[in-house]
Amino acid sequence: MSDDTLSSRLDQIRTRITQASAAAGRLPESVKLVAVSKFHPAAAIEQALEAGQRLFGENRVQEAKEKFPTLRERWPDLRLHIIGGLQTNKAQEACRLADVIESVDRPALVDALSRAADKLERLPNLFVQINTGDEPQKSGVAREEAGAFIALCKARFGEALQGVMCIPPEDEDPAPHFAFLAGLAHDHKLMECSMGMSADFETAIAHGATLVRVGTAIFGHRP
Ligand SMILES: *Cc1c(COP(=O)(O)O)cnc(C)c1O
């Protein structure tokens, strides 16, 4: 299978997920693949849907809004995760569109999401994004504030708070970051641990990822 189609690339990623799960003594079903479709057109997402993929990630609310409502009409069982830093003024639109928001990272956003959920009577599941590298330019809660912030989110959102997410610094070994995130999920009894991208998802699976977010390795380079 050397043909380089989107469907064959998806198959290859699924195979690698199964292998990495087995190597870690985990069931392949314990790792979900989030296909990150940001910057790629709806036509590419349709190809992935036709190849059986149902779970997608988008960074920007506006872009998700342009692509996903129409796709949902045809594939009602698709699931959308918002994975990018979220402005408070986009909280309501994000609540309307997303099944999961993976990037909850500050009290002002918690307030905005609460208000939006009350108004819409709809609350997506939520993950707290942790800035495991404490990088100033990156979204996410600082390491030392993570515990208190997770507690705040639990108090506010209850069962809707389901997990944690991180993006390790590009120039570092991701393994210690993944280990830290998995430990945090465990300590706070959160089921979902979203970590690992095209370059490092196998390492993330070895450390306990329950979702891996893969863009380039499925859709190719972003236009
Ligand atoms: C773009 C993006 C990804 C996917 O990255 P690839 O290297 O293309 O697999 C994963 N997570 C987040 C938060 C992203 O913004």
Strand content is 15-25%
Radius of gyration over all CA atoms, rounded: 17 Å
- As for the number of domains, it is 1
- Tell me the CATH topology: TIM Barrel
Bound molecule types: pyridoxal-5'-phosphate
Q: Cα distance, first to last residue?
A: 26 Å
Give the overall pLDDT as a whole number.
97
Structural class: alpha/beta
Task: Report the strand count.
Answer: 9
CATH superfamily: Alanine racemase
Entry summary:
43% of the residues lie in helices and 18% in strands. With 223 residues, it is α/β, with parallel strands linked by helices.
Structural write-up:
Helices cover 43% and strands 18% of the residues. The protein has helices at residues 6-23, 42-50, 61-74, 91-97, 107-120, 146-157, 175-187, 201-206, 216-219; strands at 32-36, 55-58, 79-82, 100-104, 125-131, 141-142, 161-166, 192-194, 211-214. It has one domain: Alanine racemase (TIM Barrel). It is built from 9 helices and 9 strands. Strands 1, 2, 3, 4, 5, 6, 7, 8 and 9 form a 9-stranded parallel β-sheet that branches. It is α/β, with parallel strands linked by helices. The mean pLDDT is 97. It binds pyridoxal-5'-phosphate. The site of pyridoxal-5'-phosphate has 14 residues, from strand 9 and helix 9. Pyridoxal 5'-phosphate (PLP)-binding protein, which is involved in PLP homeostasis. Residues 10-223 form the Alanine racemase N-terminal domain. It comes from Asaia krungthepensis NRIC 0535.
